[in-house]
Amino acid sequence: MKNEAIEQKVNKFMATIVAKNPSELEFHQAVREVIESIIPFMEEHPIYYSERILERITEPERVLMFRVPWIDDKGEIQVNRGFRIEMNSAIGPYKGGLRFHPTVNLGILKFLAFEQVFKNSLTTLPMGGGKGGSDFDPKGKSDKEVMRFCQSFMTELCRHIGPDTDVPAGDIGVGGREIGYMFGQYKRIRNEFTGVLTGKGRLWGGSLIRPEATGYGNVYFAQEMLKTRGESFKGKVVTVSGSGNVAQYTVEKVNEFGGKCVTLSDSEGFIYDAKGIDAEKLKFVMYLKNEKRGRIKEYADKFGCDYFPNERPWGIKCDVALPSATQNEINGEEAKILVKNGCYCVSEGANMPSTPEAVEVYIKNKILFGPGKAANAGGVATSGLEMSQNSLRLSWTREEVDARLHQIMKDIHETCKKYGTKEDGYINYVDGANVGGFVKVANSMIDQGAV
Ligand code: NDP
């Protein structure tokens, strides 16, 4: 089918999505990106049209939205909004993170839940897709305030989740501390010790390598992409954004593979350390962000490197870029600068950090581009491994979990190659990930009837 006809079908379908979900811009963006890959595939497999798969897969199975009242340290009542999107359970219980950030709204969580469906399918593990969170901002709150918020949030959420129903994990603003408080409250209300959350502490059911998994997994994926051009991380200059969980373990693995990371950021600016963020400096970042909960500027103050307030790191010359902060953090102009400066590999640790215009620049210039739903799937894959260990009531070694994670990332790369290789040999990982993730979910939906 000609490109024009495909575009018409995409636009027609998108018009219904926009009409049904007005003002959910990120959700529109995520759906468009997927159906641009899927519709050409469906033209060759019309059963997906007659089974109304697109209409079904873009409609969440369930959306929960609830009040979260909590008491701050001054004794005053605060009110936030809580959400859980149970998007698709065709291949397993809903699975996906919880995000606590003031920007959280329904559209952002629906985009994340939608992406999660395809990502989880790519991991080869039996997990459906979901996402949730709140507009609560843990920054600047005391531990006790965070605890009271988490307890209130879980008091409602616990009615809807369970180890065979829906298994949330962490995301932006939800790390080990928050998972601990929520797990404690779930256990107290339900009177059961089960694997209802992943990202748990090591002492109470957590898996080794889960904290490292998203960052490590993204570097493993990028390494597979580099291999297709006979390259590796050795000696490569790498820009990284963010300075949270994903960014930290990305730097650790790039260092291990002989690359040099020169940037990190947070929502207030970025640091540029031309000498590279070595193990000692990374230790400081982990202390700064995970314990002191300070700003990345303090890195520049401590190590005497450059700090750029209110800017993003994409103007820095690099070979590889690993965006690991948040959605839409690389726009079309920034993508052009990256490519002009010689960057030939972008692999997304964050979810949808590149705008559609940026993705267009990567593909047009035929650089290696790993979209988040493939490249950052290591996090949820290892959550899946945590669920398996919980069910077995066993704990695997660090080496065992890491080896499984590495193999899963290699397999995801192979799936992308299978569905994304074009006639000229270029691998379009966007098409590869979308179609590869879609087939398993869509076929399972067909098998299960019109539900
Ligand atoms: P963290 O909360 O640990 O860190 C997030 C980092 O991104 C912080 O440095 C934060 O800065 C920055 N950031 C957050 N929001 C914004 C914003 N609006 N503008 C600029 N910077 C921002 O989260 P994670 O590291 O866990 O998550 C990072 C990304 O990776 C997200 O897109 C997430 O969805 C994705 N991801 C995470 C997985 C995981 O296992 N944790 C799994 C798969 C994907 P500041 O502190 O100033 O807010």
Write a compact overview of the structure shown:
With 451 residues, the protein is an alpha/beta fold. It has helices at residues 3-20, 25-44, 47-50, 53-57, 106-122, 143-157, 176-190, 213-227, 245-256, 279-292, 297-303, 332-340, 356-364, 372-375, 378-392, 398-420, 429-447; strands at residues 62-71, 77-88, 94-100, 129-134, 166-169, 237-240, 260-261, 263-266, 269-272, 306-309, 320-322, 345-347, 368-370.
Describe the strand arrangement of the main beta sheet, using strand numbers: 1-2-4-3-5
Structural class: alpha/beta
Query: What CATH architecture of the largest domain do you see?
Result: 3-Layer(aba) Sandwich
Q: Estimate nothing, just give the exact number of structural domains.
A: 3
Order of helices and strands: HHHHEEEHEHEHHEHEEEHHEEHEHEHHHH
Helix content: 40-55%
Major β-sheet annotation: 5 strands, mixed
Find the CATH topology of the largest domain: Rossmann fold
List all distinct small molecules, including ions and cofactors, that are bound in this structure.
NADPH dihydro-nicotinamide-adenine-dinucleotide phosphate
The parts where pLDDT drops under 50 for at least 5 residues are none
User: Helical element count?
Assistant: 17
Assign an overall shape.
globular
Q: Note the beta-strand portion.
A: 5-15%
Radius of gyration: 21 Å
Number of strands: 13
* Termini Cα gap: 30 Å
CATH superfamily of the largest domain: NAD(P)-binding Rossmann-like Domain
Mean pLDDT over all positions: 97
Please give the CATH class of the largest domain: Alpha Beta
